[in-house]
Specification:
Elements lengths: L1 H19 L2 H8 L2 H22 L2 E5 L2 H17 L7 E5 L5 H9 L6 E6 L6 E4 L6 H15 L18 H25 L1 H12 L2 H8 L2 H33 L15 H29 L3 H23 L8 H8 L4 H11 L4 H28 L8 H8 L1
Parallel strand pairs: 1-2, 1-3
Antiparallel strand pairs: 3-4
Length: 400
């Protein structure tokens, strides 16, 4: 047992160092950040354009007392809605030639006036490029009605009582967290699981893997390689999540909202997320390693890995059936099936507060990692190294 652990540790340390300290790993870390950077740049540009389009400027030609009432009404509505969602009003003193003043304001570019409101609050008039059912007209009607209704500058206080009962809206919100967690787990595993294949086929092509297999147990070599790739993947995820968190923090003023809190709470959910990513990567990586051990060229790897990649989409579809129905037959089947169990259980953590099913699921997934690794090592030993015990039909053929 100690020889197995030492051998696995040597392989894991060797592969992890060779992967993380290589130049290609830097480009591997940068590649997923480029779409995020471009998305942030174009998103900020589109957000500014959308804000300018969605927040029109209305020039108000009225005495200062009437404009102050409108401004107080707008402040009241902004406390309950959003300042960016409301029309912007700018005050102008009345001039003798009202028509000329209106034309001058509508032709203005700084600020870009969309409409001009004139007259008193009892008989308002609007001039501008607006239709009768325009949203700007609706907001102005609401502002005028609020200004005419009263002069209170603050909203009334409403007592709020917290309730522990889970309403339908909370259930729907937690389903959103479950969907996001499953998508994150699926795409990260899909992106990172190919590293096992590429490294294994590289060592098979230069005959290094035969030398390693002659020195240490095959099972220890497979375990060490999986641990090394898992550790390298964790390094990549830390970099990507940190960059994503920084982007969210910078874009928070643009309307980025946080996910609804999961049923088990954020600390337990994040811990379970790390564990389920590890078991999901080990399970998928074990399957990919079994496939890669049977290939001799890159073309064979692509041919064999294509069904496995499509199989991942099927597994994701099976796990997604459990969202909103974790105790249904489909949800229980997805939780029991080892390859879809991690994604199913992370969704359950978002929807249900019980923790004991996760302990059972983690032990079940670790058991299947050992089974798949054992089967892959045995298949590699028999088909590639030709060192496994002969089957009965081969013994009879040799005897004949």
């Amino acid at each position: 047992m100690m020889r197995f652990i030492r051998s696995a540790w040597v392989i894991a340390r060797r592969d992890f160092t060779a992967t993380v300290l290589s130049k290609s790993f830097i480009f591997f870390l940068i590649a997923p950040l480029l779409p995020l950077a471009f998305g942030g740049v174009f998103g900020s540009i589109s957000a500014r354009v959308t804000t300018r389009i969605a927040r029109p400027v209305v020039a108000v030609i009225a005495p200062k007392a009437d404009f102050d009432r409108l401004d107080r009404a707008r402040t009241q509505l902004a406390e309950g809605i959003s300042d960016d969602a409301l029309v912007k009003i700018v005050s102008y003193s009345p001039e003798p030639d009202l028509a000329a003043q209106q034309r001058q304001l509508l032709a203005s570019r700084d600020p870009p006036v969309r409409a001009v409101l004139s007259g008193d609050l009892d008989h308002p008039r609007i001039v501008g490029a607006l239709a009768a059912d325009d949203a700007t007209i609706a907001q102005l009607k609401l502002l005028i009605a609020t200004a005419r209704a009263g002069k209170s500058e603050t909203l009334i206080d409403i007592p709020v009582t917290a309730s522990s009962d889970m309403s339908g809206s909370i259930v729907r919100d937690r389903e959103l967290t479950a969907v996001f967690a499953q998508l994150f787990l699926f795409f990260i595993t899909l992106l990172l699981a190919g590293m096992v294949l590429s490294q294994l086929i590289e060592e098979k092509s230069n005959k290094v893997i035969e030398v390693i297999a002659a020195a240490i147990p095959i099972d220890a070599m497979f375990v060490g390689k999986l641990i090394a790739m898992l550790s390298a993947s964790v390094v990549g995820i830390v970099v990507w999540v940190s960059a994503g968190a920084l982007f969210v923090e910078l874009a928070k003023t643009g309307g980025v909202q946080s996910l609804p809190p999961p049923a088990v709470g954020w600390p337990a959910f994040l811990i379970l997320g790390v564990i389920y990513f590890s078991t999901n990567y080990l399970l998928i990586g074990s399957v990919f390693m079994m496939i890669g051990s049977q290939a001799t060229t890159s073309r064979e790897v692509q041919t064999l890995s294509l069904p496995a990649t499509f199989g991942q989409f099927f597994i994701f579809w099976l796990a997604s059936k459990s969202i909103g129905a974790v105790d249904s037959p489909e949800g229980l089947a997805a939780a029991v099936f080892p390859l879809s169990s991690p994604m199913t259980m992370i969704a359950r953590a978002a929807e249900r507060p019980e923790l004991w099913p996760h302990l059972v699921a983690i032990l079940w997934q670790i058991l299947w990692v050992a089974v798949i690794l054992r089967a892959g090592a045995s298949l590699f030993r028999k088909t590639v190294l030709k060192s496994g015990p002969r089957t009965r039909w081969r013994w009879r053929s040799a005897r004949a």
